[in-house]
Amino acid sequence: MTEPTGLISGRFRLGELLGTGGSASVFAAVDTTTGASVALKLLHPHFSGRPETREAFFAEARRAGALRHPNIAGVLDVGVDTASTEPVAWIALERAPGSSLAEHVGRFGQLTVAEAIAVLDGVLRALEAAHAIGLVHRDVSPANVMVARGKSGRVTIDGVRLLDFGLADAAGRAAIGADVLRSEQAGGRAGVIGNVEYMSPEQVRGAAVDERGDLYQAGAVLYFALTGRAPFSRSTPAETMRAHLETPPPVPSVMDSRIPRQIDRLVVRALLKDPVDRFASAAEMRTELATAATPTGAAADDAGRSSGATRVTAPKRRPEAETVTRVLGSTRVPARSPMAAHTAVQRAGAARRPVAQRRPSRIGAWMSGAGLAVVVAAIIGSVAASAPAVPVAIPSPTAEASASPSPPPTAEPTPSSEPVWTPPPVAEVVVPQLSLSTLADAMRTLADAGLEVGELVVVDSERAGDTVLGSSPEAGTRTAPGAVVSLTVASGFNRVPHVVGLSRADALAALQRAGFTVAIGTRPVAGVAAGTIVGTDPGEGASLALATTVTLLEAELPPRATPSPTPTPTPSPETGV
């Protein structure tokens, strides 16, 4: 019998596309060897062709392979299809019924409170299992949670599955890499990886992420399930990242007043900025959820369906298209709070140190003068208010005028026997030269110099991505140990320059200096001399990855219209004309 064609590894027959992300696409498939329905995750072709990215892809399967839980889509098998001209790496997963939470809400609108509680309960059960073996998911989002309705027509706990452990890692590691698979070492073109709508503040900063980062994302997923929108969504990724760092947690009942206050409190606590202030574990969060899921809580949601409660309805849309997990290398990362990277123990130690030993916070320094004035004024006022009333003799004008002032006695200077205290010299360090080094090297250099990395401003440039273009303060500046140094870093993209009207040689040079590969093309343009540079494709100002081919367009004369010949009349036999 002839082997069936069109099968992946001679085994899987592909069906509909279930979803796609930054590294892979997931298809419904049938395992022809067993007849089982599976979800087949295929690595994108530009990743499948590289051994290091295939290995990183399979690392996901190894991480999740030990997980067997009713609320997790388990890994069944992995492999590489080498029968075609290009290798195709794949991971076979248990087929989760239903659709992603993002698709479900986009199609049917936000969930009832009872359904949203069921979704969070299922997600927390899955996270408990992952955390128990030391795995932190770090990519919990509506796109990675599958939901299915039960016989009652409602989403239930049994219908919830957590997917995609591609960013999962041991607790305490940062989500940083050169691509969404984290296939390259930190010394490469690294950036923060994640779904910008659901990243915890510590993940936004590129700091270590532990189990509490997953609980932040779980709280954000609950907010989305209840309201139909992400909690900190803004118009740009940079604004969204800043909101994760600075904006107070949103309250779900502001969008829908039927949402119980217990749920409000749970969401807000999960979304607090400092991990210390969040739930300590998925189990603790589930306990709080169980308290909220009472007849006065979840059931009140259904009773309110016919009431006049205030509700802001989110527009139906496809949120999953806006919330893709990716390398966030071309955004302006907000500055780090001076205490953000400190642990609770370090903060407690700082609080116990004598005031004279503490270094003032950069953020709070601007308040010190005004604050001191207020404190001093308060002390003076307090003393004045509490001082006893003492009668004071008021001299008469005459007596005051007749009194002749006597000169004060001249004090003879006496040498002091105590040594004069001289303040110790202030330690200073010099900001090192960082320009044209990689971001990873610059971070190591700053750490070696006793300085901290501050704001990263990522800009388009002809330089390779993650090349440091400058610092603030500049190299050579003397500053205090521990000072924050901001870096300007190349994004790996650049904009197509203006070349219209230049000579071919100058236009070629301009495009090549901008970091692009150049091809020559023509465009018919009337009234312009042939060979004149009339534009590019893509056009001027387009932001493209370096080494992208840009076609330089030269004018060519449009083809002349050939006049149709006038037909010669045929003489008529009768008239001879």
What's the count of strands? 23
And the CATH topology of the largest domain? Transferase(Phosphotransferase), domain 1
Helix proportion of residues, in percent?
Answer: 25-40%
First and last CA, distance: 79 Å
CATH class label of the largest domain: Mainly Alpha
Q: What is the number of helices?
A: 15
Largest sheet: 5 strands, antiparallel
Secondary-structure class: alpha+beta
Can you identify the CATH superfamily of the largest domain?
Answer: Transferase(Phosphotransferase) domain 1
Instruction: Give me the CATH architecture of the largest domain, please.
Output: Orthogonal Bundle
Question: How would you write the strand order of the largest sheet?
Answer: 1-2-3-5-4
User: What low-confidence regions span 5 or more consecutive residues with pLDDT below 50?
Assistant: 168-176, 178-189, 297-322, 329-406
Number of domains: 4
Q: What's the overall geometry?
A: globular
Query: How would you state the average pLDDT, rounded?
Result: 74
Beta-strand content bin: 15-25%
User: From the alpha-carbon coordinates, what is the Rg to the nearest angstrom?
Assistant: 34 Å
